[in-house]
Amino acid sequence: MEYVSIVVIILFIVVIKFALNVKLKDIKKIKEIGFNKELNDITNKLPENTEICKDILKMIDNNTVNIKEEKNIKSSLYIVATNSIIIANIKDTFTRVQTIAHECLHSVQNKRTLMFNFIFSNIYLIYFVLITVLTIFKIVNNPLVHIFILIFISFIYYMVRSYLEIDAMTKAKYLAKEYIESKNIIKQEEIDKILNGYTNLNELGIKFTCFMLAFNSMIKLLIYCIVAVVIY
Length: 232
Known about the structure:
Blueprint: H1 2-20, H2 25-34, H3 37-43, H4 49-59, E1 66-69, E2 77-79, E3 84-87, H5 96-107, H6 111-136, H7 143-183, H8 188-231
Parallel strand pairs: 1-3
Antiparallel strand pairs: 2-3
Helix pairs in contact: 1-8, 2-8, 4-5, 5-7, 6-7, 6-8, 7-8
């Protein structure tokens, strides 16, 4: 059964990749769009990231969030447990406004869903590591049961996380547009260029995010299945 699971998981990844038309070169395209010099020069007219974040939070009527800038991390994020937005080193990309808007939108999503995602994600990771170690040391007698449990919790994780991310990603462009227009610093034709850049970026980014969420879950399951086959 474990061998069948391995084949099914690999086929699932291949089919999803094909269906979403995800390619490795999409990563390069995303970087090229994000670091467009012309668009970056335009958004450099806007305030610093922390100020942008404060202004956008005011726009969505949420003034209780703690804001931090961390230049040593690659991805900005909202942490529901501490009600904090951590802004990564995104100064040299025109997407910084949309990225900050994205995290601000996370801060006003349903708190129960956010907290569930935070707790469940950690439980998911701990369970995966724990059950893999126990299987390696042959403490687990029936790995098939844990394969089904991993499938179940992977599905829940994907559904909740993808909902939160897609919701924020689709709304962030319009919130960023509203913010940029409110500053009256950038000309309309330049705003249009920025929004076109966001559209091109999101067309690749949303499907890539969906794929990676599914891929990361399937990789955990694949690793466990391989461990089970090798050990038993």
